[in-house]
Write a sequence for this structure.
């Protein structure tokens, strides 16, 4: 940095895994021209790695401080995060956040606030940790039509799947291990129930397609019901089970999004994405297939992404959301179907599940681990019964691409005739 | 685009594979606010896909045209490309190029010209086709210390290696196939002799480490001497042969670069990079391991990268070369060694090669395909004899990491003691 330049004064809200990772990287690189001048945390009694006088216990004090050049928000609570970030943007401030749940819920409003008040919000660390996927979609592919964006967006559930597959671990100890390593959200249901990758898919949809999806309307199925039988079933087919978030442009031009366990073969780059790593496959019209892989969790990797955003803000970067004006519509679930694999140890439960999903009773098969079923189901049914499937510990994975139902395809064809 | 905005007027110099790919993408997306108003080509008699009146046969006419907002240079000839690009930069113009040989030779001067005359030069398409590796290194990792940057940077030689490995093709027909598919440079020696990926490694070194290497001093070994025996040798070890370009920060803090065939195992993401695809592995201090993969050749993928640069120029983007001020020194070859595998069908030739490289005569072994040798050699010797190795059709691949020689490591240790 230039000796005569004032360092950029950063207000840091949150000092958990990401906040400490970011702070630590800055301490190790004192010549970047960046200084964390204030840190706000919620809990005054929690032991900290820095002396107590470094902390404020009221984030609002940072919002009221005109000396701060930039706010980094890395707290856990989406509602409080939105209050802080939206207030800062109303002040025209420059903000970096890693809060995916908050972003997924409020993205249209946050984009509007930037346009109205001239502030900037960047959030690379919110999706796929250290992988620069948001800026790649937003800037590099700003005008490249994308057929699909799919990937492993949750390091914690991927870690569990890897451990179950490699070591034959059971679900519970593998989850405990991921939590001990600090890869997991405070509430494990966010990771294991695929709520966390769903938020990330919704964020990417804004940059990949210019579409602002309603998070609650995106189907997410988790791995809470997974067992050794499912891992073995996939392995027998030469495949692995991965939680794949997928955005896809359908043949009718509309966009669909879903996050579910999926059987993935070695022909996919996602097959080799293991442990806490994340990976994203982009199918681009002109550029062809692109694949990005990197650490999806951890203090330093995510802190490094926060730092990259801080430096980008300093250079005057903001997201373009270039595809907003030509955004396709979101595809209705009613018109989509997908082939699934279902398993539950109790054949009675499984039989009931088949009636929910309108699959025939003879869809049930047996292998060395007990009963399972496969068949093509309407996405609408999976969505309608998703809570019951979760509560009953039914494991569901998709076995192929989401597609428009035959009547919709015929209708589209006759409209062209 | 805004209806009241004038389209950006582009002068396109070169209408080969990349130029046509770029032009074609623009034709398919007429609403981007970009218009190719002039095209210059060299050869007036060559058949073209556009009417003759679209072309100028004097690129200097474009340089003299004050109406052009931006120049895209995608010709084959590095000397003429440098003359055009440097002249345009002296005019303070905005330029996009894909000419890696020109860039590798003249980068310091081109950076200086931008600083002096206020122009801009972007060149994402010059390295790894469609993969946004330059902007990722330059901006996203602008302040992230990198341990290494290594990858497959040449789609043409990688295509040949894939075909030899998959189909058991011989070298010559596999090369002819790559050329027929349009993946190869006009002069196949650039691809097969690893001159092309060497240029790309030199370009990346400027962004990854702030180091401007002298291209001629970087060791490059090609695959002209490869045969079925080498593919089989690697396969027997569960590995593949890939041409890997590697930049590495050594334990003494210096940076080294080399491009050679290398035995790569399935633990590396490069193992799965096949055909014309390119891949780059970044080992970052805080972000951890990153991997990017995409099409490294072809008109549309490379044209798409050119388009991304044009749009970036329009947004005011320029490279930061942030690591220039803290750039480490380049490591002298004299102090480096590496383990290699060598093969030549004629044992007499192989024996002579061992004397060149100061390997013992008993380094020769035999397998079903004939004689080969392995051993640790000084990088300086490989560099000194590189032309003779090439001329004699000796195949050389490295089997491990480049490392400082024992005396250098001891010296460094005693300096610390």
């Amino acid at each position: 940095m230039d000796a005569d330049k004032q360092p950029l004064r950063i207000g840091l809200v949150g000092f958990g895994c990401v906040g400490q990772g970011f702070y630590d990287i800055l301490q190790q690189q004192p010549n970047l021209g960046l200084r964390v001048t204030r840190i706000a945390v919620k809990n005054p009694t929690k032991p900290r790695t820095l002396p107590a006088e470094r902390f404020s216990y009221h984030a609002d004090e940072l919002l009221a401080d005109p000396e701060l050049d930039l706010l980094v928000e890395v707290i856990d609570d989406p509602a409080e995060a939105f209050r802080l970030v939206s207030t800062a943007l109303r002040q025209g401030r420059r903000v970096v956040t890693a809060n995916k749940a908050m972003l997924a819920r409020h993205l249209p409003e946050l984009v509007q606030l930037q346009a109205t008040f001239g502030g900037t919000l960047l959030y690379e660390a919110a999706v796929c940790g250290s992988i620069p996927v948001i800026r790649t979609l937003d800037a590099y592919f700003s005008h490249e039509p994308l057929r699909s964006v799919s990937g492993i967006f949750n390091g914690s559930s991927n870690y569990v799947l890897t451990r179950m597959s490699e070591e034959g671990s059971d679900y519970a100890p593998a989850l405990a291990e991921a939590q001990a390593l600090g890869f997991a959200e405070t509430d494990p249901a966010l990771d294991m129930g695929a709520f966390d990758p769903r938020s990330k898919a919704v964020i990417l949809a804004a940059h990949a397609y210019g579409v602002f999806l309603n998070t609650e309307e995106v189907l997410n199925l988790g791995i809470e019901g997974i067992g050794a039988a499912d891992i073995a079933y996939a392995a027998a087919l030469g495949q692995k089970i991965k939680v794949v978030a997928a955005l896809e442009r359908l043949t009718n031009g509309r966009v669909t999004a879903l996050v579910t366990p999926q059987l993935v073969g070695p022909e996919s780059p996602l097959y080799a994405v293991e442990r806490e790593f994340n990976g994203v496959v982009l199918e681009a019209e002109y550029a062809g297939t692109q694949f990005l892989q990197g650490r999806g969790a951890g203090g330093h990797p995510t802190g490094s992404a926060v730092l990259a955003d801080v430096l980008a803000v300093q250079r005057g970067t903001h997201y373009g959301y270039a595809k907003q004006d030509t955004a396709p519509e979101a595809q209705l679930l009613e018109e989509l179907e997908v082939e699934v694999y279902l398993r539950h140890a109790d054949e009675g439960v499984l039989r009931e599940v088949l009636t929910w999903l309108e699959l025939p009773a003879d869809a049930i098969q047996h292998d060395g681990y007990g009963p399972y079923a496969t068949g093509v189901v309407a996405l609408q049914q999976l969505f309608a019964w998703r809570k019951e499937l979760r509560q009953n510990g039914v494991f569901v994975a998709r076995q192929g691409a989401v597609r428009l139902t035959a009547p919709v395809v015929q209708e589209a064809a006759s409209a062209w005739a």
In short: The mean pLDDT of chain B is 95. The interface with chain A takes residues 21, 25, 29, 32, 124, 130-132, 135-136, 139-144, 269, 272, 277, 284, 286-295, 298, 300-301, 303-305, 307-308, 311-312, 315, 320, 326 of chain B (CB under 8 Å). The longest strand of chain B covers residues 240-249. The two ends of chain B are 64 Å apart (CA to CA).
